[in-house]
Design goal:
The complex is a heterotrimer of chains A (about 325), B (about 325) and C (about 600).
Chain A (H helix, E strand, L loop, with lengths): L22 H6 L7 H11 L1 H18 L1 H8 L36 H37 L1 H16 L2 H11 L4 H28 L2 H8 L4 H37 L11 H8 L7 H29 L9
Helix pairs in contact in A: 2-12, 3-5, 3-12, 4-5, 5-6, 5-8, 5-10, 5-12, 6-8, 7-8, 8-10, 9-10, 10-11, 10-12, 11-12
Chain B lengths: L1 H28 L3 H9 L5 H10 L6 H13 L13 H36 L4 H15 L2 H18 L17 H35 L2 H8 L4 H29 L3 H6 L5 H10 L3 H29 L1 H5 L1
Helix pairs in contact in B: 1-4, 1-13, 2-3, 5-6, 5-8, 5-10, 5-13, 6-8, 7-8, 8-10, 10-13, 12-13
Chain C lengths: L70 E5 L15 H10 L4 E2 L11 E2 L7 E3 L4 E5 L5 E2 L5 E2 L2 H10 L20 H8 L7 H10 L5 E4 L2 E5 L7 H4 L20 H4 L8 E7 L3 E6 L17 E5 L4 H9 L5 E3 L9 H6 L5 E5 L3 E7 L9 H10 L2 H6 L31 H10 L8 E8 L3 H15 L3 E8 L1 H8 L3 H4 L5 E6 L9 H8 L17 H12 L3 H17 L3 E3 L4 E5 L4 E2 L3 E2 L4 E2 L5 E2 L3
Parallel strand pairs in C: 1-12, 1-13, 16-17, 16-18
Antiparallel strand pairs in C: 2-3, 4-5, 5-9, 6-7, 8-9, 10-11, 11-12, 14-20, 15-18, 15-19, 21-24, 22-23
Helix pairs in contact in C: 9-11, 15-16, 16-17
Classes of the chains: A mainly alpha (about 325), B mainly alpha (about 325), C alpha+beta (about 600).
Chain lengths: ~325, ~325, ~600
């Protein structure tokens, strides 16, 4: 299942999925001496591209955390409108200049400051929605794989349904029926995103559950919950870790897409997708309004994808690297 | 094989049935018994229209019975009528579909070509400069949200070119092929490229990975040992085997796209299924939304089914699973 | 008083006006009488706001020898609301109906006279007798329906058209303009309201059996009796709603999809194909004779309306002359306007609308804005210039600081609430708001219109400085109008401030088209557009006085007083009196702007490529 569908499919469901049976053995095998995690860490550390990507991500995180500092230094609030100094009288924004380093938007706001604050939403949704997806997917995947039978059939069908629902279409109709908010956006992404995780985990569990040490645990009278979470879960942590890093950029794009379609985080909260949507009415007169938020979004997703690729290599050096 | 086919078709049908249930619950049960007739009759409906709609929907019946009627209507090809013009949803979909089809098929051919070619180059010239350049490009386009690429395309190829006296690319819209094949083609170039570039990277990866795997297998070594030319080994023996996973992924992706390329169609104002759905959502035209969602889900299920069947025909082992 | 065509970048498929859904049948209304006896209409001259030089942007592309033939393309995004002339109440509908539905009187294709009606299918201006209360009109011989065989349009067809306006299925939204004016109209409508909403046969039977008592018809002759003299009645006769209707229309429910696929033409063009939200194709109507139509020259052979082209795309196609095209429903993108002005583009026009678009209506019925003091605080506290920036700046949007735009009888400039945040804060404090007791307002706007989204963000920032919290309630335009037409919504404080627009139904002596539907407190939605349920005894009295006035001067004075009193009551926050920006390819000639549909008259353009 190493599918990586086109974005129009927009699956937060399916980033570059590690091949199902690639990861576990390598990472999970308990070897004497240096732990597999330690080995993976060392491999990752040697991966220059991944390290640079990690650096970029750290910078973005710092920018997000320190967004108020941008406000403080420029003296421009994220939602503050400079109707005279940042906007011509006919409503056209100002190009980048000494006062507004990246120019202003159609409301006379400082694009630099808004990009900094926008990083908060992107990272927040990227991380929270991803963790939520992975949590739901892991639990259902574990249950399906461990219990098998009717439980498995039920969950497998559920997975099939979610995967055959066109994400964007459903997400925008759902969000527009309720009122768009940060919470709704996260929930909608998670609701449609867990299925791919569940499928991977389910497959992994299938291959593990007949192993001797699980049999042993069972014969010792361990409860199913104990077996699932204490004995099996650690073995799927490696693919899940890879999955998380690869899923974050997909989720960030999903959030930006919802905002672009007008059903994301409501204004005036600065958000990259929404900035780009607002810019598209005016990009002929204000290229900076389109280009800078786009670059911010692009740099973030590229960095996460490179890092994700590196993490996968580190955890399973046998797989082919895509971006190397 | 017959048993496999039957089983697979039945599973697909079951999934579709479940999808209709999900749709029914979200749109018919979700709003609550009082609101649903109002919502489905249109926001501007008069009390008498709402009453008529409630009657048409049989809201007095128990839920399972309502669902049954909903299902029977769908199976009879009756998806209802849009609120504003009373046009049948089937005809709306019928008009939008050729646009989505034009976009999806052209883009698919393009991304398959790009993906497979770059994948082969990367595999054959592993670690070369070409490989690196291609993988970096693949990474960037893969990471790029569709609307960012689409809008940047418009900025450069429509706006900058037009202001410099080179008005070649339109900034969006769709010309039916029957009206003018040339305008149809011209208008689709940017959307095709946009969609193809963001979609090609997975194919580069799939092709590269599969080809490298295949080239390591015994029969390829045998072929080499026989003294066949490397080129012949790679393309005749290797690529053919490597393309199977690519082909199956391709089938699924095209199926998904046939339900509407929401973002691309929106960026380029092409009134295909995705664009029509976005417009319907803005005006809360629920019958149209429901119709398009159902069509899109059907396309996904059918594509999966076809891929599985073709796969099983090619590879007998699958049937045993 | 039709809902204004909006500046929009993303058109909602059916964004439009659906007010007054059931206007007929109500007996409370304000049309107590005409405003004056003498014949001059107050101000059909071009308005003279600060930027009168802009009106020199006519986009006319006049001169040259007109050519016949060719296909005119109209490009836009979005559809008519309906193709049923007796029901339509939207500028874009009016534009389409210009091709195939004629009226007794209409606005001519002349830049200097485009707000004064002239005979269309009538032989002459009406003969007015009985102290201004009886209108006698004759239809031209030779005006034909394109039926098989072609059939003369008769006075009976006119009666049928008027009857259809208050059908129980989908009434015309503008009936309050005239429903007490025409003798017997109310009685007819009250009876019609009891007829089945779903049976064309029942409606036909009622129409056939119940002529409106104030209208008598015989062959081509029409006599209309009014309850009171009204100089603007001839303007009302120019409403597309007063188009004659062929008997075949009674086979369908009004405004139904079937009817819209079976329109019958008495104009120079007929609908060849109509695919809702996609396209409308018009071809020549062979049964139309130029000799019977003094208004439409009908130079082009075909008119193809394409409804799926984005605003940007339209602008590019027009600017690069890639086809013989003009705009359909979308104006020039706001951001393109400065450059078009700066380069003095001859294909660009900026013409008066005589309307206010947008304006902010305050909910005077419930919630914090029930308090006059708080409403007045907002009048002082909203920065008009900032809102105007969202619409392309003051050059295109001369500010409006009171109700009546320039060019409407009774309009005199005054500014009762110059921007003054200090005063606004003081008033808020007086009303008990301040630190510890924050004022929170819900602003309702059309989420599918970028400029309205911008209005929300602008208000949020500006009022935020006064300590007011503004919450957004964005909803599609179509839904917004529906919410507006139900007075229960303001009463339960669903919204406090709403973003709307207004164009008058006629020009010059048309103050009634503002105060009647918007501020007269005794008629409420859905029968009016008094969205905020504003009710001021002073304004109500002013309106009655203005309508009873016996001279134009007296009427204008009373309307001006109504203007002052409405502003005193802080019913709305007026923003601008916009010029409408239109554009066309330079291959399209003789582009005469018509305020009635805020676009060039397609039945009078000609193509240099023809």
């Amino acid at each position: 299942m190493s599918n990586l569908p086109p974005q129009e499919v927009m699956s937060p469901t399916a980033p570059a999925v590690p091949a199902e049976d690639d990861l576990v053995p390598e990472a999970a095998r308990v070897i004497e001496g240096r732990s597999p995690w330690r080995l993976a860490y060392e491999r990752l550390h040697r991966d220059r591209a991944a390290m640079i990507a990690l650096g970029v991500i750290l910078v973005i995180v710092v920018v997000a955390i320190a967004a108020p500092v941008f406000s403080l230094v420029t003296g421009h609030g994220p939602d503050q409108q400079f109707r005279t100094t940042g906007l011509h009288s006919d409503g056209l924004p100002y190009a980048p200049n000494a006062r507004f380093l990246l120019g202003t938007d159609d409301q006379g706001r400082d694009i630099l400051v808004r990009i900094a604050y926008g990083a908060r939403i992107s990272l927040l949704v990227g991380v929270v929605a991803t963790l939520l997806e992975v949590a739901i997917g892991t639990i259902l995947g574990l249950a399906a794989g461990y219990f098998g039978g009717a439980v498995d059939t039920l969950i497998a069908r559920l997975i099939d349904i979610v995967l055959s629902i066109p994400f964007l279409l459903f997400a925008i109709s759902l969000v527009s029926i309720s009122h768009p908010s940060l919470k709704i956006v996260i929930i909608v992404i998670a609701v449609f995103g867990w299925a791919a995780v569940a499928r991977i985990v389910r497959g992994q569990v299938f291959s593990i559950r007949e192993k001797e040490y699980i049999e042993a645990a069972r014969s010792l009278g361990a409860s199913p919950w104990r077996i699932m979470f204490i004995d099996i879960l650690p073995n799927v942590v490696a693919p899940i870790t890879v999955y998380i890093t690869l899923l974050i950029p997909v989720t960030i794009v999903a959030e930006a897409s919802l905002s672009y379609l007008g059903v994301g985080v409501p204004p005036p909260t600065p958000d990259w997708g929404q900035m780009i949507a607002e810019a598209q009415n005016i990009y002929q007169q204000a290229w900076w309004f389109l280009v800078f938020p786009s670059l911010a979004l692009l740099i973030t997703t590229v960095a996460f994808n490179i890092l994700g690729d590196g993490v996968r290599d580190a955890l399973d050096p046998r797989t082919q690297q895509l971006f190397k | 094989m017959v048993r496999f086919l039957i089983r697979r078709v039945l599973t697909g049908a079951l999934v579709l049935l479940l999808v209709t249930m999900v749709v029914f619950v979200i749109f018919y049960v979700g709003p609550g018994p009082k609101a649903v007739a109002h919502v489905l009759a249109g926001k501007q409906a008069s009390p008498s229209e709402i009453a008529a709609e409630a009657k048409r929907l049989h809201l007095n019946l128990p839920l399972w019975h309502q669902y049954w009627i909903f299902l029977v209507n769908i199976l009879h090809g009756n998806l209802g009528y849009d609120y504003y013009h009373g046009e049948s949803v089937v005809s709306i979909i019928g008009q939008a579909f050729p646009i989505t089809l034009s976009l999806a098929l052209g883009a698919a051919v393009l991304w398959l070509t790009i993906g497979v070619l770059t994948g082969v180059v990367s595999a054959v010239r592993s670690r070369s400069v070409a490989d690196r350049v291609l993988t970096v490009a693949a990474l960037v386009f893969y990471s790029m949200p569709t609307f960012v690429l689409g809008l940047l395309m418009l900025l450069v190829f429509y706006y900058v070119l037009t202001t410099h006296g080179l008005a070649f690319f339109p900034p969006g819209g769709y010309t039916p092929i029957g009206t003018s094949p040339w305008l149809w083609f011209k208008g689709l170039i940017l959307p095709w490229i946009t969609l193809a570039l963001v979609s090609a990277a997975p194919y580069t990866r799939l092709t590269r990975g599969a080809l490298l795997d295949v080239l390591g297998e015994d029969y390829i070594r045998t072929a080499r040992a026989k003294g066949l030319a490397e080129r012949r080994v790679t393309y005749r023996h290797g690529l053919r085997a490597a393309l199977t996973p690519v082909a199956s992924q391709f089938g699924i992706d095209v199926g998904v796209l046939l339900g509407g390329a929401v973002i691309t169609e929106t960026v380029f104002s092409m009134p295909g299924l995705g664009y029509t759905a976005v417009q319907a959502i803005q005006t809360q035209d629920l019958p149209v939304i429901i119709g398009i969602v159902l069509i899109a889900a059907t396309a996904v299920v059918v594509a999966n089914l076809l891929v599985d069947i073709v796969y099983a025909l090619l590879d007998p082992r699958v049937r045993l699973h | 008083m039709r809902r204004a065509r909006q500046y929009m970048a993303v058109a909602a498929g059916a964004a439009a006006l659906t007010l007054f859904a059931a206007a007929c049948g109500s007996s409370n209304n304000n049309a107590a009488g005409g405003s004056s006896g003498s014949g001059t209409s107050g101000g059909s001259k071009a308005p003279t706001p600060s930027s009168s030089n802009l009106a020199s942007f006519t986009g006319l592309n006049g001169g040259g020898t007109p050519r016949y033939g060719g296909t005119l393309t109209m490009l836009g995004q979005g559809d008519v609301q309906r193709l049923d002339p007796n029901i339509s109440y939207y500028t874009v509908d009016y534009l389409a109906e210009r091709m195939f539905a004629r009226q007794l009187y209409t606005y001519p294709a002349s830049l200097s006279k485009n707000t004064t009606v002239v005979p269309d299918m009538a032989t002459a201006m009406p003969v007015i007798t009985n102290g201004g209360k009886t209108y006698s009109i004759t239809i031209r011989k030779g005006v034909m329906w394109d039926t098989t065989p072609p059939r003369q349009v008769t006075a009976a067809d006119f009666m049928r058209g008027v009857q259809r306006t208050c059908n129980p299925t989908q009434a015309f939204g503008g009936t309050p303009d005239f429903n007490t004016l025409i003798v017997g109209y109310m009685a007819f409508c009250n009876g019609f309201a009891k007829v089945s909403t779903t049976s064309p046969a029942a409606q036909k039977a009622y129409i056939d059996a119940n002529p409106i008592s104030g209208i008598t018809t015989s062959g081509l002759n029409i006599t209309i009796n009014l309850t009171t003299p009204a100089t603007y009645f001839v303007d009302i006769l120019a409403f597309p709603a007063f188009s004659p209707a062929p008997v075949e229309y009674l086979n369908y429910l009004p405004s139904s999809a079937q009817l819209q696929q079976h329109t019958i033409s008495d104009g120079p063009y007929k609908v060849a194909a109509y695919s809702p939200t996609k396209y409308i194709d018009f071809v020549r109507n062979p049964d139309w004779k130029a000799s019977t139509d003094p208004v439409r020259k009908a130079y082009v052979n075909k008119i193809n309306i394409i409804e799926t082209v984005s605003q940007q795309s339209v602008q590019q196609q027009l600017a690069t002359n890639s086809s013989d095209a003009m705009e359909w429903n979308q104006p020039v993108p706001t951001a393109d306007i400065p450059n078009l002005i700066a380069t003095k583009n001859p294909d660009f026009s900026l013409q008066p609308t005589f309307g206010m678009n947008p304006y902010f209506v305050f909910n005077a019925a419930a919630g914090p804005l029930k308090s006059l003091t708080v409403r007045q605080a907002l009048e002082y506290g909203i920065n008009r210039n900032h809102i105007i920036q969202n619409y392309g700046g003051p050059a295109v949007n001369p500010p409006l600081t009171h109700i009546l735009p320039n060019g409407i009888g009774g309009s005199i400039n005054f500014d009762p609430y110059p921007y003054n945040p200090t005063k606004a804060k003081a008033l808020l404090k007086a009303a008990g708001y301040g630190p510890g007791h924050q004022l929170t307002l819900t602003f309702m706007y059309a989420s599918d219109f970028p400029q309205q989204q911008a209005d929300f963000q602008t208000l949020q920032a500006d009022l935020g400085k006064l300590g007011i919290k503004v919450k957004g309630y964005g909803t599609p335009q179509a839904n917004l109008f529906t919410l507006m037409s139900n007075p229960a919504n303001p009463r339960k404080d669903l919204w406090d401030v709403a973003d709307v627009g207004w164009f008058p139904d006629w020009y010059g002596n048309a103050a009634k088209s503002f105060f009647g539907p918007l501020f007269y407190g005794k008629v409420l939605p859905p029968e009016s557009n008094n969205d905020g349920l504003f009710n001021s005894a002073a304004v109500n009295a002013d309106v009655v006085r203005a309508e009873a006035a016996t001279s134009v001067a007296a009427a204008d004075a009373a309307w001006h007083q109504a203007d002052i009193d409405t502003m005193k009551g802080a019913a709305i926050f007026p923003v601008n009196q916009p010029y409408f920006p239109n554009f066309h390819s330079s291959l399209v000639h003789n582009c005469v702007y018509e305020p009635d549909f805020a676009n060039y008259d397609p039945t009078n353009v000609w193509l240099s490529n023809a």
